[in-house]
Amino acid sequence: MFTSNSFHNHPSTMSSSTSHFFLPSPFLRHRPKPPPKPKLLLPIRSASTDPVVADIAEKLTASPSASPHLQPLRDRSSRSLLSKSWPSTKDEPFRFTNTSFLRSSDPVPAPFSLSLSTPPSVFAGSIADLPKSHNISSYLDSDPDGSLGDLFSDLNAIAAPDVSVVYVPAGVRASDGPVHLRFGYGAVEGGGDAGRMPVSSPRVLVVVEKGAEVGIVEEHVGLGEGEEEDDGGRCCWANSVVEVVIEEGGKVRHSYIQSMPLRSAHTKWTFVRQEASSSYEFTEICTGGRLSRHSLHIQQLGPDTSTELSSFHVSRSNQIQDLHSNIVLDHPRGFCRQLHKCIISHSSGQAVFVGNVKVNRLAQQTDAGQLARTILLAPNVTVTVKPSLQIIADDVKCSHGVAIGDLEKDQLLYFRTRGIDEQTARNALLFAFGAEIVSRIPFEKFRKSITSEVQRVLESKQTPSL
Q1: How far is the C-alpha of 307 from the C-alpha of 328, rounded, in Å?
Q2: Residue 130 CB-half CA count within 13 A
Q3: Residue 465 has pLDDT above 60, yes or no
């Protein structure tokens, strides 16, 4: 069993290439008594602190004791929280994203389950179990001065019970399959806007050394039944952070899948640091959650660096799908491509995409492009698309574009003239729209399961066209 402080191999599920780790879940009858809660070096309340933030922070620090590797990060984040207020639509980063239902909830620290499989050439487990010769603690905090993250990244830092580490030694090419991280979150009956909200805070650190390659599949799902729209009592909040460090010449293919219950929330930060000649390919599929907010910060730290981002969101009744990305290029010959797609199928659905690419003065001969495409299937839909290029260098090739609308009539006509009814035609076109992103997941096993899930979501309760 994986306790809050360390990983232990489960003897009945171990093999040469697969290992499974678990945090105690709310569904286990017997759980070990948690150790005393950690004491932060500084209080998380002062005269100027937002009382709502202070109350939530104090409740979340009642979770089991964190790994000692986390203590410097917890201390830094506790200081940062002293000056933060709960984000509102008056704050620019949250101008289009309403988080008030989380603010009014009664948070309760909650465990989560983590099942993990990995190629034999890659270490995956608790940071406490990593050999001391691999000193990677310095990589733990991607935001040492607190200028990149926000309230949610700080809350994760003070509440995370441990750090799950994926470590790929120099020169290793993990070709036996991806590292698969599957996070499961429990729900409680009697949830709702003002009810008790179980909050889980997983944290992952990925370190890929010089010349190494690895694939990662990161899944976030709900546990138990009652995850459909008409379920009035189940809710949970996952607040996760993933840090990725790619050294010179390293390559990471990262797939992120979020299909949590429709009354839940998932706030997530992903920090990526890429050194010279490294490559990072990221594919995101989000279909679940009442609120899904992903903040993605990528910094290219050397020349000849490549970053490719693809995302596909589906927003149904009372859902907010939000992606905020920030890519910083500081060195010559950087390459960056970003494609964001979204389908909104209900009038109460909402989608937000705010993407920023900053090309600084030394990033000459940069090639960067952004494209956002959104399909609206209902009237009075709220969609915010805001691609942005900040270019200081003068020798670059950069572009961005946006397209928003319903399906084209001539596309539907093509199907109708071949005897296919309109609804079947619409379903086929919508699926093909998302399939461009799904097909970029490089692992067939997961690509097939995601394809089935996306098809199920798109065909459920379709709303007539505009």
Answers
A1: 11
A2: 24
A3: no
Q: Which residue carries 């990161």 as its tokens?
A: 218
In contact, 264 and 236? CB cutoff 8 Å: yes
Residues 69-89 have a mean pLDDT of 89
Distances (CA, A) of 237 to 72, 258, 419: 25, 13, 46
**What gap in Å lies between CA 58 and CA 267, rounded to an integer?**
19
| Closest by Cα among 226, 259, 257, 260 to 242 | 257
Q: What are the residues facing 412 on neighbouring strands?
A: none
d(CA 222, CA 185): 5
Residue 293, CA atoms < 13 Å, CB-side half-sphere: 19
Distance in angstroms (rounded) separating the CA atoms of residues 22 and 4: 9
DSSP tag of 127: G
Query: Distance (Å, rounded) from C-alpha 462 to C-alpha 464?
Result: 7
pLDDT digit string, tens, across residues 322-348: 999 999 999 999 999 999 999 999 999
Look at residues 172, 167, 76, 184 and name the one whose alpha carbon lies nearest to residue 127. Answer: 167
Report the alpha-carbon distance of residue 286 to residue 419 in Å, rounded: 33
Task: Tell me if residue 68 falls in helix, strand or coil.
Answer: helix
CA distances from 118 to 96, 165, 168, 195 (A): 38, 12, 11, 38
Query: Which uninterrupted H or E stretch holds 311?
Result: strand 306-315
Q: Residues 6 or more apart from 6 whose CB is under 8 A from it?
A: 126, 128, 129, 162
**Contact criterion met (CB below 8 Å) for 156 and 240:** yes
Q: Return the DSSP state at 75.
A: H
Answer yes or no: is pLDDT of 316 > 80: yes
Residue type, 105: S
Predicted local confidence at residue 132, as pLDDT: 76
Question: CA angle at residue 98 from 95 to 103, to 5 degrees?
Answer: 125
pLDDT at residue 407 in the model? 80
Q: Please name every residue paired with 314 in a beta bridge, in sequence order, or none if there are none.
A: 343
Q: What is the 3-state secondary structure (H, E, C) of 403-418?
A: EEECCCHHHHHHHHCC
